[in-house]
Write a structure and sequence with these properties.
Blueprint: H1 3-12, E1 22-26, E2 29-33, H2 37-46, E3 58-61, H3 71-86, H4 100-106, E4 115-118, E5 132-135, H5 138-147, E6 149-153
Parallel strand pairs: 2-3, 2-4, 4-5
Antiparallel strand pairs: 1-6
Helix pairs in contact: 2-5
């Protein structure tokens, strides 16, 4: 199996998985930021849930609107902090300490062989540490809070090879 398949098999509690298969996995780390968090908390309450199953696996980042520029944003953050306190979820790091996708790695919460999900599109960044990392939506985030698990499709893996060297101005992600 490829490394991603091995991670997903471990998270699913099975001996092996293959690309395209749908598996139910236990999440090792759930990242939630302060922009999406208030909506996640609202959905959690509206769906009638009472208990967060995995508070110790939740990594919270306040890194998008530090400090809030509008009263509405400040109220949403206050409400989110109250939700976190109510469910004994401690912050992953202090407000304004850095970008959540980097600090989750800096603090040793994104480890090789683990499955990490987060509620925004940059949640793949910790994959650089050898974990499987991907973004999920608000409803899926609520599901992970409630169950600690998620259905996922085992991804296909593609090998890309580069021969030679990059020309001047070419970088890993962009070019000038």
């Amino acid at each position: 199996m490829h490394a991603l398949e091995k991670i997903m098999a471990r998270a699913a509690g099975v001996a092996s998985v293959s690309a395209g298969e749908i598996v139910e996995v236990s999440v090792d780390v759930l990242m939630i930021n302060e922009r999406q968090g208030p909506r996640v908390a609202q959905n959690f309450r509206e769906f009638g849930f009472q208990h967060v199953r995995i508070p110790e696996k939740v990594f919270i980042g306040f890194d998008h609107q530090v400090s809030p520029t509008r009263a509405e944003a400040a109220e949403r953050q206050k409400s989110f902090r109250e939700f976190l306190a109510e469910h004994s979820i401690s912050y992953g790091y202090s407000v304004g300490e850095g970008v959540m996708h980097q600090t989750v790695m800096d603090q040793g919460r994104a480890l090789p062989g683990e499955l990490l999900v987060g509620n925004d599109s940059h949640s793949v960044t910790p994959g650089a540490c050898g974990c499987a990392a991907t973004g999920i939506g608000q409803t899926e985030t609520v599901a992970v809070l409630v169950t600690g698990q998620l259905w996922m499709r085992v991804p296909e893996v593609m090998k890309a090879e580069m021969h030679g060297s990059l020309g001047p101005g070419y970088l890993a992600k962009t070019w000038h």
